[in-house]
Amino acid sequence: MRVYRSQQLIRPDLQAHIFSQDLLDNVRKLKGLCPAKTKFCAVVKANAYGHGISETVNILMQSSVDAFAVATVYEAIHIASLTHKKPILILEPLNPSQSIEEIQLCANHGFDCILSSLDSLKYVRQALKKTTAVLKIHLNIETGMGRCGIMSDLAETLMAEIEECPNLKLTGIFTHFATADEEDLSYAYEQQKNFDNFITDHHLKERGVVIHAANSAATIKMPQAHYDMVRCGISMYGYYSRRMSHPPVQLKPVLKLQAPITQIKGLPAGHPVSYGRSFIPQRHTRAAIISLGYADGYRRCFSNCAKMKIHEHFAPVIGRVCMDQVILDVTDIPNIQPGDMVTVLDNCHDSECSAYALADLAGTICYEILTLIHAHVNRIVH
Ligand SMILES: Cc1ncc(COP(=O)(O)O)c(C=O)c1O
């Protein structure tokens, strides 16, 4: 097996503060929405949505999380030594781009893997043929997401073939909602109905497989969709998939991103700022240079529109965001000096630099803002 390069370069000056208690509280509150028997699968893919996968898993091991979900086999290997044999579900379906060694490794590690096509089944069966390994399989049923799930008529064949194969054991059935985060849940309920029909038609409740469907939004808004397990990502980190005016649980963002002021300088009125001279100050301006840029995950589209927080004041970004520098107008902010830390991404929903506020500016969702935080940003666990 190849050795995969791990992130070695860390920038101690760029600090993502991870508040353990908030993460644990969010998990407790989300679990509180579900029946006691419903298992909680913590989704820690994409470097735990930017929070640092090892740090996050270590904190979650102090909670009553039942399982972890990652995107890839590489992430599963990375956390396997931290999870003390709790189940790890790999969300990317098994597929022929993977080496035979990888498939065997999944079986030997006891990872829960996903099958969603007959081609992949054939490949996996071949990969395990000469072994006594048994690979745990969850089937992803297409109910309306239109991504990797298998169409229900083909799923029948797939289940029959899994049953015949001594190297495969069906341990789970699931689906994924396309619109559970939207206000109108009618399509999500339609998906749920398709899923329920599949479960009933194939007597899956009687077969002892783990049935699961709910992401964060469905965990919060669709109690009928909790089944045997929920798979929560974004809400565990403190966010509703999109802003909610009257959420049934109060979640707290877990991460605060800070960067240092490296220089403060005066700029006369009319003196252009940064690449392209897109900002021309109208007054004598005190500018603070922040040691962070788009190479660290702070989007270039925040140029001339985002704000950062310094000692409870908000300072506007002026000029273009550079690869590793941002310039703020701090003319109206007293008592600041080089070396002070500014808050780039705040752990408060109402902040002018919350992940929601930044997502609005970038025309995206808070998931993208969080996952873009570069791996070299130092994660500091409190
Ligand atoms: C299959 C699957 N389940 C669960 C999740 C978690 O979703 P959320 O972060 O909205 O809770 C994801 C995330 O993309 C996913 O792909």
Layout of helices and strands:
Blueprint: E1 11-18, H1 20-32, E2 39-43, H2 45-49, H3 53-60, E3 67-70, H4 73-80, E4 88-90, H5 100-109, E5 112-115, H6 118-128, E6 135-140, H7 152-164, E7 168-174, H8 186-201, E8 210-212, H9 216-221, E9 229-232, E10 255-267, E11 285-290, E12 307-310, E13 313-316, E14 326-329, E15 341-345, H10 355-362, H11 366-371, E16 377-381
Parallel strand pairs: 1-16, 2-3, 2-9, 3-4, 5-6, 6-7, 7-8
Antiparallel strand pairs: 1-10, 10-11, 10-15, 11-14, 12-13
In words, what does this structure look like?
The protein has helices at 20-32, 45-49, 53-60, 73-80, 100-109, 118-128, 152-164, 186-201, 216-221, 355-362, 366-371; strands spanning 11-18, 39-43, 67-70, 88-90, 112-115, 135-140, 168-174, 210-212, 229-232, 255-267, 285-290, 307-310, 313-316, 326-329, 341-345, 377-381. It is built from 11 helices and 16 strands. The protein starts with 10 loop residues before the first strand and ends with a strand. It is an alpha/beta fold and 382 residues long. The strands form 4 sheets. Strands 1, 10, 11, 14, 15 and 16 form a 6-stranded mixed sheet that branches. A 4-stranded parallel sheet has the order 4-3-2-9. A 4-stranded parallel sheet has the order 5-6-7-8. It folds into 2 domains: 20-232, TIM Barrel; 255-381, Lyase, Ornithine Decarboxylase, Chain A, domain 1 (Beta Barrel), CATH 2.40.37. Helices cover 27% and strands 22% of the residues. β7 (168-174), α8 and β8 form a beta-alpha-beta unit. The mean pLDDT is 96. Pyridoxal-5'-phosphate (PLP) is lined by residues 43, 91, 176, 215-217, 231-235, 241. Pyridoxal-5'-phosphate (PLP) binds at residues 43, 91, 176, 215-217, 231-235, 241.
